[in-house]
Amino acid sequence: MAKLKKMVSAVGSIKDLNSARAEFDDASRILPDEAIFPPDDIRPAQTDARTLLLRITHAAESQKDNSQGDTFAAIHIPAANDFAVVMTLNPSAQIESGSTFATIADEGGWPVVVAMVEDILGVRIDHVAELEASALGAVVNELGGLPVYSRTAFSAGDVEFIEGTNNLNATSVGAFATADPVDDAGQTRTRNQRAALRALIQALKTGGLAKDPNKGATVLGHFASGIHHDQALTTLELAEIANSLRQLESDDIAVVTIPTTSRREDDGTVIIDLDAEAMPALKDALAGNDLPDFFRYLVSLGY
């Protein structure tokens, strides 16, 4: 009887996994290349590295047409598969005089977003994924919550966060990542997004998904329910990326914010600029020069 139950469970998990894969790979989830990527002649060259640009969007009425509260993160795995970098970007960062990443993104859409990120990082974006916060919330609940550290106590709607460790669930993860609790042009929010992504990656690595097909299928199903992505990001490609991350030690995955500087104008407005001193070194590291050392150094500085 025990063997029969195990066999029935295995058959069920295979069906669930196939269903989740079918939803993820469904044509309705695919964003056409011409709708997300800029012209090839202005893009960095292709390499054996993999870089995925993740955008987490939120359904709040005030944010439907505004990128300001979205999470933008680039996941970069070098060709050697010996390290990985997750870089969150503050949408308030100025790209051109008077124009922030968010305002340009809102006006130009995905091709402009990809072009800006490729210019900032100096590497080609191979994949694009846009994930709804509600789908992420379901994943977080399935993983049992995410422990994240907040530098300051704040409230967002009906949710209260303490200074220190907070355990995020489906309801609070979106609030934590979108709230702007400090008048610093989104710097605190971007750090909170970094903290949430760091905890999510750790939970996915240690959640036993590879050993528990049922749980793995459920998590993939939650992701699939709220994702849109480029055509090349199939479940097979996603599995290769996930496997690369799973095989790395936690110390070999650096989750950082892209370095910026801030200044306050006479009228009190906070202006965020990409760090002119740090960015050339970041680009050089992503090009393959001492990547682990550079990003471990950024982590040690609190980025």
Topology:
Layout: H1 2-25, E1 30-31, H2 33-36, E2 50-57, E3 71-77, E4 84-89, E5 93-96, E6 99-100, H3 101-108, H4 110-121, E7 127-132, H5 133-142, E8 146-150, E9 154-156, E10 159-161, E11 164-168, H6 170-178, H7 187-206, H8 213-225, E12 227-230, H9 235-247, E13 253-257, E14 260-264, E15 270-274, H10 278-286, H11 291-300
Parallel strand pairs: 1-12, 2-7, 4-13, 5-15
Antiparallel strand pairs: 2-3, 3-4, 5-6, 7-12, 8-11, 9-10, 14-15
Helix pairs in contact: 1-8, 3-4, 5-6, 5-8, 6-7, 10-11
Structural description of this entry:
The chain is of the alpha/beta class. Among the domains are: 44 residues, no CATH class; 51 residues, no CATH class. Helix content is 44%, strand content 23%. The strands form 4 sheets. The chain has a 7-stranded mixed beta sheet with strand order 1-12-7-2-3-4-13, with helices on both faces. A 4-stranded mixed beta sheet has the order 6-5-15-14. It has a two-stranded antiparallel sheet with strand order 8-11. Helix 10 packs across helix 11. The radius of gyration is 19 Å and the shape is globular. The termini are far apart. The N terminus is likely disordered.
